[in-house]
Write a structure and sequence with these properties.
It contains six helices and ten strands. It is an alpha+beta fold. The protein binds flavin-adenine dinucleotide.
């Protein structure tokens, strides 16, 4: 900071990266506030950062290395299922979805519901030539009622088997011979891998009315600008939220270009209603 303006970033090893025009923070709002210093954000925003809510559920992803792609029993009535990219398993009605999230809330292994895909059907580079890779990511609690989040490391194998057992009735060819390898990526792994995904919060902050739209992450900074001149919020804790859409980064880029009078080399998307 220099004269109330963001002037760069200091890395943990002490190296300083200087910014000539702006600093784009692709990390989450609470961490941005902590790193830049609460004193620059004022009491309201500092409190909002401290109160930011992470997710109440996460994902546990089972990755499979396969001899051949999953072949689904449902092709008996819908042959295209084996060619679909994204498949959702495990929920036939709202009551079952509710049941799953009640279990998650209690910190129990829930009814297995979620989506998955066989990437190699669309991009063979995901696996060695002729082999396949598929995944399914059911919803899961971050922490267990007994043992907390750390229990994931002990329950990894048990849960991987449970997910595979639940997947097999849909894809009966997921036999021992077909499954060459499996790995369960747990909510704790998500948190370990990305510091923005606290408590396995894969959308980088809960989707609650008070954290959506103009409230994300807080009405005073929902236009990607912060009280610090030249410091912008570009990550998924801002509106449009956590998804691979790149929406927060796109919107922030427009805000930066507008403020710095930079000519946009992209065609801006028209606001709704225009
Ligand atoms: C298992 C899983 C499945 C998902 N599935 C989907 C899906 O199907 N569709 C979809 O749209 N979205 C999905 N998501 C969500 C999507 O991946 C995220 O919303 C998106 O990655 C968020 O992007 P981001 O750039 O804001 O944050 P991130 O992707 O988390 O990037 C932030 C980066 O900053 C780094 N970082 C954080 N703090 C610091 C620091 N202090 N210093 C240096 N580096 C730091 C992190 O390590 C990370 O690399 C999924 C997420 C997970 C985990």
């Amino acid at each position: 900071m220099e004269g109330g303006e963001a002037r760069g970033v200091e890395l943990s090893g002490g190296m300083r990266l200087e910014a000539s025009r702006f600093v784009a923070s692709a990390i989450d709002f609470p961490q941005t506030v902590r790193l830049a210093g609460e004193e620059h954000f004022g009491p309201t925003l500092s409190q909002a950062a401290r109160d930011f809510k992470w997710a109440s559920h996460s994902l546990a992803t089972l990755h499979l290395a396969l001899e051949e792609p999953p072949r689904y029993a449902s092709t008996a009535f819908e042959p295209d299922v084996d060619r679909a990219y994204n498949l959702v398993y495990g929920a036939d009605d709202t009551a079952q979805v509710r049941e799953c999230f009640e279990d998650v809330k209690r910190g129990e292994l829930p009814r297995l519901i979620g989506n998955g895909a066989c990437n190699t059907l669309f991009d063979p580079t995901y696996a060695p030539a002729g082999k396949h890779a598929a995944f399914w990511w059911p919803f899961a609690p971050y922490a267990f009622k007994e043992g907390g989040a750390d229990a994931w490391d002990e329950r990894r194998d048990e849960y991987a088997e449970k997910v595979l057992d639940a997947w097999r009735p849909y894809a009966p060819n997921l036999t021992q011979e077909n499954v060459l390898g499996k790995y369960l990526f747990t909510p704790l792994d998500i948190e370990r891998r990305s510091a923005t995904m606290v408590r396995g919060s894969h959308h980088v902050g809960a989707y609650l009315p008070e954290q959506l739209g103009i409230n994300r992450p807080h009405p005073d900074v929902s236009d990607y600008r912060t009280p610090i001149g030249g410091l912008y919020l570009c990550g998924a804790s801002s509106h449009v939220g956590g998804a691979v859409t790149g929406g927060p980064g796109y919107n922030a880029a427009n805000a930066i270009a507008d403020d710095l009078k930079i000519e946009k080399y992209w065609t801006p998307v028209r606001p709704p209603g225009e």
